[in-house]
Amino acid sequence: MKNTKILFVCLGNICRSPAAEGVMKKIASGLPIEIQSAGTAGYHIGELPDTRMRSHARKRGYDLVSHAQQFDPSKHFEQFDHIVAMDGSNLRDLKAMDRKKQYQHKLSLMTDYSLTMDVNEVPDPYYGGPEGFEHVLDILEDSCRGLLKQLRP
Hints:
By secondary structure, the chain is an alpha/beta fold. Helix content is about 40%, strand content about 15%. The protein has a single domain (about 5-150), classed as Rossmann fold (3-Layer(aba) Sandwich). The chain has helices spanning about 15-25, 50-60, 75-80, 90-95, 130-150; strands spanning about 5-10, 35-40, 80-85, 105-110. The termini are close together.
């Protein structure tokens, strides 16, 4: 497996995409994969992930320590091999940022990789209760395993 670079993207980069980053880093540990996350909006630049998401992730053995960054089309499209959006809205935003349509092949939806769960997107748990964060982690664990399966020769 060649060195692969994956960027997970959600809106604010404080719940879903840093959780995907944490899950993937753990399940791909020891493999030549670089993993980061970003948000399509810059609301939370420099912040740690949401405390509720960090707490739920910690219970499953994931340490979410990245700081929020905003997706930068001038560097991220070139830098990453796979740019994985958490929902349709984020995917549309990313496609719109690719003005010359030269990076569309790098874009995908997180749930495209789902192995066992029948879901269309990773829902934003920000305004919900604890069960929303758990559901997001269930989806991310399933989808990250599926993504890793596709990356392996």
